[in-house]
Amino acid sequence: MSIDPVHASPAGVERQTPERKAQAAPTPRRAVSENVPKVEIAKIQNSPAPSLFPEHEVKVQLDTSANDVIVYQVLDKQSGNLVLQVPSAAQIRGIQQAQELLQQIAARGVGATSDAASAAMVKGEGKQ
Fold first, then answer.
1. Cα–Cα distance, 99 to 71 (Å, whole number)
2. Does the residue 39 lie in any domain?
3. How far apart are CA 107 and CA 109, in angstroms?
4. Is there a domain that residue 51 lies in?
5. What gap in Å lies between CA 92 and CA 98, rounded to an integer?
6. d(CA 127, CA 121)
7. Which one of 44, 62, 87, 125 has the fewest beta carbons within 10 angstroms of its own beta carbon?
8. What is the structure's pLDDT at 41?
9. pLDDT below 70 — which residues of the chain?
């Protein structure tokens, strides 16, 4: 197998491309009779296009019922409907339930330690 060397073209020589013929614009049709009204072309005015994306408003609140959790709400500006909330209502309920459970567990622990201390006092094992 043999490979022929690539021949370089001399500097300043440009490759010619075939020329395209310019197409003539179509000629407007002329009215056959003079009774036909002339057609006027309406000019298009530039007007702002309606927004394709909905506009939203962000609202930040502090939920004190859920131990001061910051709640972000995204509202639709036109309708006022809630689009997104972080954390969601279900998550806030979960936070509240977890806090109640922790308080119940803490109350049991305090009750158990106070019961053990009072039992020790009854037996005479308390500090004197």
1. 17
2. no
3. 5
4. no
5. 10
6. 8
7. 44
8. 73
9. 1-34, 36-37, 42, 66, 111-128
Handedness of CA 107, 112, 114, 115 (dihedral sign): positive
Cα 122 to Cα 128: distance, rounded to the nearest angstrom = 13
Specify the 3-state DSSP secondary structure of 41.
coil
Length of the chain, in residues: 128
Whole-structure pTM value:
0.43
d(CA 72, CA 63): 10
Full residue range of the structural domain in which residue 60 is found: 56-117
> Is 87 inside a domain boundary?
yes
pLDDT score at 110: 74
Give the containing element (helix H, strand E) for 105: helix 89-123
Residue 25 lies in a domain: no
CA atoms within 13 Å, Cβ hemisphere of 114: 6
CA distance to 54, 62, 113, 115, per residue, from 65 (Å): 32, 9, 29, 32
**Number of structural domains in the chain:** 1
What is the reported pLDDT for 105? Answer: 93
